[in-house]
Amino acid sequence: MNTVTKKILLPTSTAGSLPKPSWLAEPETLWSPWKLQDKTLTEGKHDALCVSLQEQQQAGIDIVSDGEQTRQHFVTTFIEHLNGVDFEKRQTVRIRDRYDASVPTVVGPVSRQKSVFVDDAKFLRQQTKQPIKWALPGPMTMIDTLYDDHYKSREKLAWEFAKILNQEAKELEAAGVDIIQFDEPAFNVFFDEVNEWGVATLERAIEGLKCETAVHICYGYGIKANTDWKKTLGSEWRQYEEAFPKLQKSNIDIISLECHNSHVPMDLLELIRGKKVMVGAIDVATDTIETPEDVANTLRKALQFVDADKLYPCTNCGMAPLSRPVARAKLQALGAGADIVRRELLNSDKLV
């Protein structure tokens, strides 16, 4: 087990994307096409990565990432590098059982000929000595972002993706990544599949890894389809209740969830007692900038159910739809709010 983050109390991180600069892609737009091509695109991505890294460091973020500057979409950018998927042959499918989207089609056996993000991870590793977290799509969320015309089985395709993800994850670990996060928003929707084979395929994806592993389960980006869906969920959002018991028994090290400005009952964290928890203390579905005290209050509530040495403050989800000034200010609030609670803990007897 990688212990690099154990030296940091309440290590802060981001759950997902940061906004891309306007010279790389259209600002405040999810999955915007690249404005550059070929070698210039690679250079542009790495320049954006450096800008993202600097903004994280200035905000006091402890566990840094590429800010997803090197990918257009958190799922399909990985898939487009695989064999067996035709991006020209598209179908409209229901995504997360919430909204319709045009997606590529699985037309044959899926496989990975070479690494997808390893060169980018190596570049980030060269820029900093801080702990690095890298995000990959989870198997269930991958199958929910495609039309399968080959396997004709969500479970079979998920197992195939789990094997491919494991290959990528092992190379990312070798490149110096400290935490590999698998994004599984589908875990908040398909409860029966999560418990029948979803967690099992996720564990296949982390098989043999020595670095820390995380699963990020959120309620989605701050787009209309997701915010409209949230309005239907009532006064208590108890979706985590379905997956947490199975995840608590799993080999996943860290569970990342949405908290601030949500209706997730904080006592659901009892279901993952003993796990490290990334608590979303920044709402990415609003331009309203949290104060450090807002962040601190969310962390204080979480500390009722999570030991201090297992709590990781982070954002609820990705910030891609936000403007850069708003995202920057929210990051700064996250760092400052974590500092407030760190000082409180150091002056108390609550440290484990």
TrEMBL record:
Keyword Cell membrane: no
Highest taxon listed in the record's lineage: Bacteria
GO molecular function (one): 5-methyltetrahydropteroyltriglutamate-homocysteine S-methyltransferase activity
Alphabetized UniProt keyword annotations: Metal-binding, Zinc
SUPFAM superfamilies: UROD/MetE-like
Swiss-Prot/TrEMBL cofactor(s): Zn(2+)
Protein name: Methionine synthase (B12-independent)
Presence of keyword Zinc: yes
Species for this entry: Marinomonas aquiplantarum
Domain Cobalamin-independent methionine synthase MetE C-terminal/archaeal: 10-333
Organism ancestry: Bacteria, Pseudomonadati, Pseudomonadota, Gammaproteobacteria, Oceanospirillales
PANTHER family: 5-METHYLTETRAHYDROPTEROYLTRIGLUTAMATE--HOMOCYSTEINE METHYLTRANSFERASE
Alphabetical GO biological process terms: methionine biosynthetic process
